[in-house]
Amino acid sequence: MMMKRRNRLMLVFLVVAAGGAFLGYLRDPVTGGREQLLLPRETRDSGNAREQRRPQPGRTRKWRERTLHREQSLGFAPGPSLSAPVEVRVMPDETVYVLDWGDKSVKRFSSDARLLTTYGGTTGQGPGEFVNPTDFDVDADGSVWICDPVNGLITVFAADGTFERTIRPERPPHRLALLGDSGYVVISSPSGGRLFTLYRRNGDPILACGTVMENQAQLSIALDGRLTGNRSGRFAYCAYRAGLLGIFNPASHPPLIFVHTIDFPGLPPVLSRQNSSAHYVRVDPSAPIVSRNASLVGDEVHVLAGTDRMPERSVMDVYDGNSGRYRYSYTLPGNAAIARVHGRKMYTIADTTVTVWSMTPPL
After folding, report:
1. Residues 324, 341: contact at Cβ < 8 Å?
2. Which of 108, 312, 331, 333 has the most beta carbons within 10 angstroms of its beta carbon?
3. Against a cut of 0.85, is the pTM above it?
């Protein structure tokens, strides 16, 4: 049963990724009509002097003991169920928000696992409806912002679940992080020559940044990953397969750096194919998943590694939130698809459930 659920979650992940790939159709001609292997070449010349690339000095993990105690799980019958959870966010009062791709909604749970509010849940192109919700975040006032790249919109719901407004960024929004009064940051689909676009609260663009490879506008699918932000204007990004961690701090110089994760396989190869109607690209499925998601925790960035280092256990790698230098690692019970650290607790997604853990010693 666990294997079936794991396969189901992986299927959902692939469907979501395929939606991004669909939006990433390219029109360049390809001769022969057969799939071609494209190898991205790394570059330090980002076209933006405020960006830097830094390798990790070593590849050996430094283990720290950390014990996780299961408190409760969301998504078990006879209570409110989750069919395909793909992302989780947590508020200061430990209210839990879950993006449930199964019914295309965000669900808000109380700290004792009661379902409080549902945002969305209807398929379509009208106000408050979604085709392929890929990410979300929650503002300080409890409003919920949800990305739908197929519709090209960010939809904002009030805290009580009522539809409030839509925002149409310059390009279809794929990933999102709210940054407090500083605005918000978006990764588009495809992301193009700049990975990140920062916007003011009113939707006006502030800055586009983040060039890490040659031909990025054509091969940016290789950089698909996750975002996390905080209300001081900082955000972190980890790429699924590229072995890159990006850290943005408006108070630093430069404000944006990229570092190699401790598992750095190089940029993943991209497969290109031409059929009768379109030219599309996708990441070579044999490329390893290096990172799954990141959390900003004080002056640290906690990155859930994609490589299984121990049987039936996931690994969390911790980096300095300013320099990006690797600090230490600890293990998690079970294999988590997503793990988000919030205060003294961790929230993991595995199969169709979200589990809440308390951590000792506390961070």
Report:
1. no
2. 108
3. yes
